[in-house]
Amino acid sequence: MNYKNIEINWLWHAGFKIKTVEGKVIFIDPFKIPDESESADFIFITHSHYDHCSIDDIQKIAKTGTVVICPADVSSKLTHILAKIDIKIAEIGEKFEFELENKKKLKFWVVPAYNTNKSFHTREEDWVGYIISIDDVLIYHAGDTDLIPEMKTFSTANIDVALLPIGGTYTMNAGEAARAASIIKPKLAIPMHWGTLKGIGERKDAELFLKHCSAEGVSAKILEIENNK
Length: 229
Hints:
Helices cover 17% and strands 28% of the residues. The protein is an alpha/beta fold and 229 residues long. It has a single domain (2-216), classed as 4-Layer Sandwich (Metallo-beta-lactamase, Chain A). The protein is globular, with a radius of gyration of 16 Å. The mean pLDDT is 94.
């Protein structure tokens, strides 16, 4: 999908590849990506579960100088990466800024992601989502989360694209994710974390998400999986 000249591809599960106008390559939670995948300039990891922090997949795309942004409990796993990567620990509330070519910058904010009524992703784990600013486009990757009170503060960020989990077993379900979208008010909401692993929803749930979003006055779109094995 092209959004204001930013390429946004859903890879599988909660994994996305984002490519800037200048060709910078950003991966978020890569999982089950092809061996020949393009090398990453930045890799964002939301938490340490195997389907979000996959060392095998990070190995495929890491190169010398790749910046890996992750929570503290993920960093110890990254010692197995052969390439000389640059690890940045993501703590909730922090803001980061990286200089790119042509005086442009990559900025991002670390935001909380947790369950409110289940124990798979507790608040105490300090796992995260990210709001990433690329070429003046704001992309929110929610990580594995429920509808949380902090989302009310995201509405003032003027988010362009929100990537929201809808699986329902470990995260929000389709209706809850649509309510989150109505609170966040992105220009476009995209469902993720569905149709890939057992127990996390099917295409009908993604379609239900679109229906609920429409009722909330939020534009939404289902992306087809790109480059899946």
